[in-house]
Amino acid sequence: MAELLKRLTETGGVSGDEGRVRQLIKQEVSPFVDDIYTDRMGNLIAYKKGTNSDKKVMLCAHMDEVGFIITGISEDGMLKFKVVGGIDPRVLVSKRVLVGEKGHAGVLGIKAIHLQEPEEREHAVKVRQMYIDIGATSKEEASQAVKPGDYAVFDSRYVEFGHNKVKAKALDDRAGCAVLVELIRQNQRYDFDLYACFSVQEEVGLRGAEVLGYSINPDIAIVVEGTTCSDVPGVDEHLYTTLMGKGPAITIMDASFYANKELVEMLVKAAQKEGIPFQFKKGATGGNDAGRIHLAREGIKAATVSIPCRYIHSPSSVMDLGDYENTITLISAFLKGCEL
Fold first, then answer.
1. Which residues, 6 or more positions from 251, have their beta carbon under 8 angstroms from its beta carbon?
2. Which class for 94: exposed (0-12), middle (13-18), buried (19 or more C-beta within 10 A)?
3. Bridge-based pairing state of the strands 193-199 and 56-62
4. Is 82 part of any domain?
5. Last residue of a domain, one of 131, 154, 177
6. Is there a single domain that holds both residue 215 and residue 288?
7. Are 304 and 225 in contact (CB under 8 A)?
8. Could you tell me if residue 51 is inside a domain?
9. Domain residues for 210?
10. Are residues 54 and 71 in the same domain?
11. DSSP E strand boundaries for the chain
12. In the chain, how many H helices and how many E strands?
């Protein structure tokens, strides 16, 4: 499991540039499914035929991650960029990035503190004040390596540390992708047709999921997501959204959808029957692919199971491997007991 997580998180795949992640997943799951294909949006769909039913169950996790897109090159060789997805500018300064298909090393830079006016030091740095330094000395030199439209990702390695914890970029939502891959690898065949969907462009508006919901039109959909975990110093306990190490988080509602109550009850019963630790996600901010899937066609029953991740949308997110493993176990139990 850890080896799969390492490869998935260390592969670059900013929204709109998910090709390498898609290829990796395709190689992992192709031997275990009846069909696998990519739609026009770039979503990857792995299909497993059911034994005796015309019902369809959809699992969904998004392949894309937050990152950057190059918008220009200055005369001194510095790269101008825009953020792709929601990233707190406070985590950016001096972080290492990999730019373009060849992964040119770069550093997110800003004017040195020694050169800043006193009032500048009192405010958080804005993205428009930053640049990416790839070591070039001129626009001509930089243009030989990078062009506008190239993507950049955080340069961050997968590390296991502490008590069963991992640090990596893109745990939102490569952890969810890994869960789906592990479920497919179980090589279980169900009464219903199973569609394991790996979506694109979630971080910029749940775009791939909207297409998937319409094209597959499942009877039910379960989204697997990496979600905010705020059980850290400086946050009042009543503001915790999830707790690390307490199991997968089942969503009641968020800013994008209300989870189907029947599916929530089925997930809870599966967890209780198998003795799987779980929690309910508190708070109602943010959203995920379920927000678009449940609106497709005449409406689709949808629910979300999330893995708590600290420091989400940064180069160093943190996840508990026990939560990850229990998410696999919970969804596996749900699928085996699912009666449509």
1. 259, 264, 280, 281, 290, 303, 304, 305, 306
2. exposed
3. parallel
4. yes
5. 154
6. yes
7. yes
8. yes
9. 2-65+169-337
10. no
11. 35-38, 44-48, 56-62, 67-73, 79-84, 96-99, 104-109, 131-133, 151-154, 159-161, 165-168, 193-199, 220-228, 249-251, 279-281, 301-310, 317-320
12. 9, 17
pLDDT band at 114; cut points 50, 70, 90:
very low
* Sign of the alpha-carbon dihedral angle for 103, 170, 178, 33: negative
Give rounded-to-5 percent helix, strand, coil for the chain. Answer: 30, 25, 40
Co-location of 44 and 193 in the same domain: yes
CATH for 285: 3.40.630.10
The mean pLDDT value for 237-242 works out to 75
Tell me the DSSP string of 241-304: S--TTS--EEESB-SS-BPPHHHHHHHHHHHHHHT---EEEPS-----THHHHTTSTT--EEEE
Using the predicted structure, report yes or no on whether residue 137 has a pLDDT greater than 60: yes
> Are 266 and 175 contained in the same domain?
yes
Query: Is pTM beyond 0.85 here?
Result: yes
Number of domains in the chain: 2
- Tens digits of residue pLDDT in 54-100: 899 999 999 999 999 999 999 999 999 999 999 988 889 889 999 99
User: What digits encode the pLDDT tens for the residues 225-238?
Assistant: 999 888 777 766 66
Say if residue 238 is in the same domain as residue 137: no
Quote the mean pLDDT of the chain: 92
55 and 74 fall within a common domain: no
pLDDT over 70, % of the chain: 94
How far is Cα 283 from Cα 295, in angstroms, rounded to an integer?
A: 22
Q: With contact defined as beta carbons under 8 Å apart, do 246 and 310 qualify?
A: no
Cβ atoms of 223 and 60 closer than 8 Å: yes
What is the set of active-site residues? 202
Domain boundary among 154, 187, 206: 154
Question: What is the distance of C-alpha 73 from the center of its chain?
Answer: 29
Examine the domain organization and report whether 47 and 148 are in the same domain. Answer: no
Reduce the DSSP state of residue 169 to 3 states and report it.
coil
